[in-house]
Each structure stands twice: as C-alpha cells, then as structure tokens.
Write a structure and sequence with these properties.
The protein is an alpha/beta fold. It has helices spanning about 15-30, 40-55, 75-85, 100-105, 110, 120-135, 145-150, 170-180, and strands at about 10-15, 35, 60-65, 90-95, 115, 160-165, 185-190. The chain has a 5-stranded parallel sheet with strand order 2-1-3-4-5, sandwiched between helices. It has a two-stranded parallel sheet with strand order 6-7. It is globular, with a radius of gyration of 17 Å.
Length: about 190
Amino acid sequence: VSSAPHRMEAIVVEDEAVQRERLSALCSGFGWQARSFAEAGSLIDLILERQQTGQPMPDVLLVDWNLGDGLDGISAMRRLRELLPAGSVPAALLITQDERRALQTEDIVDVVDAVLAKPANPSTLFNAVNEAIAKRKGGSEHLLDQSVIRRLGGGLLPDVRLLVVDDSDINLEVARRMLERQGAVVLCDNH
C-alpha cells in the first residue's frame, strides 16, 4: 500500500503550442502532473482507454473552446459525458479568449465546471481549477502536492501569526491549510 499523497493530474487540450506549453508549465509549477494534447480526439481516446482499463481518471481537464481539429471543447466535453458513466467525467474547464460569450452559451453549465480566460496566469488558473474541483468533488484538499511543500522546506513559518484576507471562502481555506502546514497560526477574514 502506497503512502504517497495523491498527485493531482491535469490534462490540457489546446491547439496553440505556446498556450499549451504555458498552461502545462503552470500546472507543473503547482506540483500537478500535467499532460497535454493539441486535439480533442486524443483526449477522448485517453479517457476511454483509462475507463476501459480501470485506470484513474485525471482530476481536471482544461480544454480550449476553439480547437483546430473540428471538435470544439464544448462538443468534446459533451461527447465524454455521453460515453462515460454519470459522475466519472473529471472536472472540466473551458479555455477561451471570449469569456463573456462562453458564459452566455446556454448549455455550457451542463458540460463544464468553470471557464478560464486566455491568457491565464497562475492565480486565475489555480482559482478556476479550485472552483471546478470543489464543484465536482465537494472539496479541493489535494490541489497542492505535499512533495512541493516539502521541497520548499516544510515548516517554514513556525508560530508565525498571519491574517489572510480574501473575498473567496475557497481561497481562504486553501491558504489557511497551506500556511498551517508550514506551522503558521492563521486567522482568516473575507471582508
């Protein structure tokens, strides 16, 4: 029995090579396993193979809305929902340059958990993935890989008292847990 903590896995599907590499690098920077594809067909093949062989599904899919292979992100996610048993589709983010138009698309709520505007930065990516994972799994405890925290020295803030202020309860919870793991005494406020 392995005692290694779960390492979150993110799959990026983006036809623009620079964007795909950038998103993969951001995911890896959070300590997540990152895998990427240029087309939705490769994602569907991977997910079906895992389902058929009993392998674990990725934690989150980051899929570009407008892909060059004829299958857009919304259609790809709809297809996965048709092919997989209910509840087994990973959390999904739609990546787009036109966030407003995406949010106005009627059936988007049925196929994706959050929208991520291009170009994403570390904060917007983390927040969108956090939102999608929390929505799908009811919590986001495994977003940060413990090995990354250990590599950073673990316990870097023994008995340091901190006040964390943010308007997002999810962000406050993640920040509180991260800081407490480092030994800090944390007070959170969302005002």
